[in-house]
Amino acid sequence: MNTLKNYITLIGKIGTDAQYTKFDNGRSVARFKLSTQKTERKNDGKYMETTQWHNVFAWGNLAEFIEHYAQKGKKVAIHGRIVNRTYLNPAGVKRNKTEIEIRNIIGLS
User: Fold this and answer.
1) pLDDT beyond 80 at 109
2) What is the residue range of 34's domain?
3) pLDDT band for position 2 (50/70/90)?
4) Which of 14, 36, 44, 109 has the greatest number of C-beta atoms within 10 Å?
5) Is residue 66 part of a domain?
6) What values do phi and psi take at 42, rounded to 5?
7) 3-state secondary structure of 24
8) What is the pLDDT of residues 67-106, one digit of tens each?
9) Are 79 and 9 in contact (CB under 8 A)?
10) DSSP 8-state symbol, 40
11) CATH number at residue 18
12) Residue 1 lies in a domain
């Protein structure tokens, strides 16, 4: 039997200080943006680096750890899963958002 997995590993730099929220029910979440880079060779032989931004978040004890650790500019490896969700913006327009739910984070610098 095949088992399909939703698992992702990214290595990049923290682009924003973590936003930590503790809810009335005791749960907590931390969110930040992670940048990853890709270098491509163009037709003219020159290299160009592009940056991709990822919205990432973590719950519970990991969120509390990230609140104290995740500072802009730090290089990290994150392991987690891709989460897609739909919401209505303040104007009532339906929007889709893709985020990475962190299950593990490792500091690299």
Assistant:
1) no
2) 8-107
3) low
4) 14
5) yes
6) -85, 170
7) coil
8) 998 899 999 999 999 999 999 999 999 999 999 999 999 9
9) yes
10) E
11) 2.40.50.140
12) no
Is 70 within the bounds of a domain? yes
pLDDT above 80 for 3? no
CA–CA dist 58, 52 (Å, integer): 20
pLDDT band at 1 (very low <50, low <70, confident <90, very high): low
In contact, 37 and 51? CB cutoff 8 Å: yes
**Contact (Cβ atoms closer than 8 angstroms) between residue 15 and residue 34:** yes
Q: Is 18 exposed, middle or buried (0-12, 13-18, 19+ CB in 10 A)?
A: buried
Q: What is the pTM of this model?
A: 0.84
Domain count, the chain: 1
What DSSP state is assigned to residue 43?
T
Nearest CA-CA partner of 107 in 80, 77, 79: 77
Tally helices (H) and strands (E) across the chain: 1, 6
